[in-house]
Amino acid sequence: MATVAVLALGSTGAYYAYRADDVGLDITTAPVTRGNVVETVRAIGTLEAMTSVQVGAQVTGIVQSLHADFNSIVHKGDLLAQIDPSALRAQAAQARAGVTRAEAEVERLQVLLADAGARLGRTRALFVRSLVAPADLDAAGIARRLAQAQVEAAQAQVEQARASLGQLETDIERTTIRSPIDGIVISRDVDVGQTVSSRMQAPTLFLVAADLSRMRIVASVDEADVARIRQKQPVTFFVDAFGEEFDGVITQVRVQPTLTQNVVSYAVIIDVPNLRLELRPGMTATLTIETARHDGVLRVPNAALLFRPSSEMFTALDQPVRPLSGPRPAGRVWIVREGRLTPVQLDLGGSDGAYTELRSGTLGEGVEVVTAITTTAQRQAPAMFNNPLFGPRQRWGHFH
Length: 400
Description:
The chain is of the alpha+beta class and 400 residues long. Helix content is 25%, strand content 41%. It has helices at 86-128, 134-174, 302-306, 311-316, 376-379, and strands spanning 3-8, 14-20, 23-31, 33-49, 52-56, 61-66, 73-74, 79-83, 176-178, 183-188, 195-196, 204-209, 214-222, 234-239, 246-260, 263-273, 284-301, 332-337, 340-345, 347-351, 355-360, 368-375. A hairpin with a 3-residue loop joins strand 20 (347-351) and strand 21. Helix 1 (86-128) runs antiparallel to helix 2 (134-174). The model is unreliable at 1-23 and 388-400 (pLDDT under 50).
């Protein structure tokens, strides 16, 4: 009869050597253990400042001087750059002259209006005495209304000239570029002597980030995982620059989808403390998002859930061959009981990739479950059978 010898290999598993005639089996097992199962989602994101402002130029001109550079600490209202205002000042002088000329024109037309009004009054008095014809009275009235219209048009010209002057004075003030917030200059995109043009759009001169002691990560999460993501879930992440783990917490899961090469993903925002100012904007973060946690539970190795015996294994063990076609049953593991492979059905919970929570079943802590079976011939096969010229050697696969 066939015999089964059990050799303990520490607390992590056991090794069974089986001999049946000239056929041998190596059975690898691992125990059901008690521990933590932490479900996670992996993602990639980019570090950003919590608040950053692009400081641009609203006027066209030559950069006359710079008063801030990369990494400069600035406060709201601090001078960052000065654009040469000489051209705008010349235009403003012309606009002031235009305002004066328009105001003088209004005064001249008001004198003509007053004269036309006096003429109308005299003509009306003469008409009452029948000393002038009705046509003369009509002509005097028309002259007066015409003078009134000319005054109103001249007053509008004054308002237009003043508006042009006000716009130029505002543009002169805009040649002085100041910081809109307290923060640090992350980037500077201009140099002294460079011409900036705002005709099409405002050019960016500086990027100022607010306090970097708090940052955020904008991560991209696949649509298959986004349903498990919630606000306030803890996050750990690494950046290539440092060999340590950083912590964060999810503050927002955006509903707007992003389609990249037919893959849909969603943006997840993670709040990150940066009290030591080690983390910098633009760093790539590799994130692990904790979606569920099960502490102190019975757990089964995932390798045992993936194992599926073949008909050759049953034959070598002198057991009836079980029909194993179709998909692998969920939650089924195999144990060696009295020298025979026996299936056990389990009720499973969450998984962390290495272990799966055992909610209920007939297995207790320490029970050994089969994770792989190979033949002794396979284990002792010469290396030549692995040579690509001879083709791959025959395996009894344990991940069917």
